[in-house]
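Retry 2 of 3 after timeout on previous attempt. Resubmitting structure tokens to design endpoint.
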């Protein structure tokens, strides 16, 4: 059995609870593993469900969770979801709502839409179920290490009671406002990440055309004020090596940038860089492919400039 790293949790209502997790993808698998480890330490249970059911059975065998039906999931105290978009969460709420327990809490860790969160919270509240939007940043490695950034929208008291569970996979867990706020912050986080990735690719492509040696150029940029998470952690490791290891799908990043654009349009904010980034990432998704790693978006910049960043 693999034992993921974890955070010590404060004594809380999370003891001896039944938690459930919907969606065992790249993120959901290690996040549910952390919850299962916590449940084992507190006498609780972690139920897991995945559309492709074999993944739930494999999760149970590896991490000590319990593969469950949707009917069983509906009886849990806390239901987590981590699915591609808010649309898949809506569909599962449709299926589970009649069976959910009043007093339960639904925590959606999908990178979703704030407007969808508000509608979901209202539907659940009518059935006596609280809702938190709690998207995450830090990738599968952050989930395994228990160091994810978790940005939470929802009622302060509900958040306070669920913090120990969020701390099982989170290193920085903060409430950022009412329902929908977590999704709003996550969309900004990811559009910034996309902007930084595309802009460092543009800069390097122009340097290559000027005859500059990209290896040392990147090293000095990373020691200077133009560096970013993307320039420091993605370019040499994934782009220069042409590895593009699959961790976070390009289609999901394009979706997140689209949510950021939708959000700024809703409040009539002026955000031309967010608009440009959302359009470029959508173009990259169409030209390169949705299911490839997001770092492959740089191939669009390479194609536009007729160079390879290596
Ligand atoms: P994956 O593509 O790895 O996994 C998607 C999961 O959703 C799988 O469990 C899949 O089931 C399930 N799923 C897909 N469609 C449906 C459906 N119609 N009904 C039910 N289940 C469905 O995604 P990630 O884990 O990478 O991402 C999940 C969320 O987390 C996304 O919102 C993403 O933006 C966000 N995120 C991702 C990060 C990353 O680094 N990967 C980092 C931070 C946030 P099945 O196994 O059957 O295909």
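Retry 2 succeeded. Sequence:
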């Amino acid at each position: 059995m693999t034992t993921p790293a974890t955070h010590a949790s404060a004594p809380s209502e999370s003891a001896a609870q039944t938690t459930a997790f919907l969606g065992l993808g790249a993120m959901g698998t290690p996040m549910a593993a952390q919850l299962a480890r916590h449940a084992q330490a507190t006498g609780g249970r972690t139920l897991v469900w995945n559309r492709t059911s074999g993944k739930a059975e494999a999760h149970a065998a590896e991490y000590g969770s319990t593969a469950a039906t949707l009917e069983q999931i509906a009886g849990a105290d806390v239901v987590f979801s981590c699915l591609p978009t808010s649309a898949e969460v809506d569909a599962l709420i449709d299926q589970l709502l009649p069976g959910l327990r009043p007093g339960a809490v639904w925590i959606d860790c999908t990178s979703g839409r704030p407007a969808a969160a508000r509608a979901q919270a209202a539907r659940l509240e009518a059935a006596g179920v609280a809702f938190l939007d709690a998207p995450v940043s830090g990738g599968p490695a952050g989930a395994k290490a228990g160091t994810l950034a978790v940005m939470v929208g929802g009622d302060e008291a509900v958040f306070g009671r669920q913090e120990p569970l969020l701390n099982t996979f989170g290193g920085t867990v903060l409430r950022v406002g009412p329902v929908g706020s977590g999704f709003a912050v996550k969309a900004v986080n990811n559009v910034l990440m996309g902007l930084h990735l595309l802009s460092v690719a543009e800069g390097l492509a122009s340097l290559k055309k000027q005859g500059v040696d990209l290896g040392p150029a990147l090293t000095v940029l990373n020691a200077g004020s133009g560096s970013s998470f993307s320039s420091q952690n993605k370019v040499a490791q994934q782009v220069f090596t042409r590895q593009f290891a699959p961790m976070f799908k390009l289609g999901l990043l394009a979706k997140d940038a689209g949510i950021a654009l939708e959000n700024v349009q809703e409040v009539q904010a002026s955000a031309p860089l967010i608009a440009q980034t959302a359009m470029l990432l959508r173009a990259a998704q169409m030209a390169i492919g949705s299911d490839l790693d997001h770092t492959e978006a740089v191939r669009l910049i390479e194609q536009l400039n007729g160079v390879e960043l290596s």
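Attempt log closed. The first strand starts at residue 18 and ends at 22.
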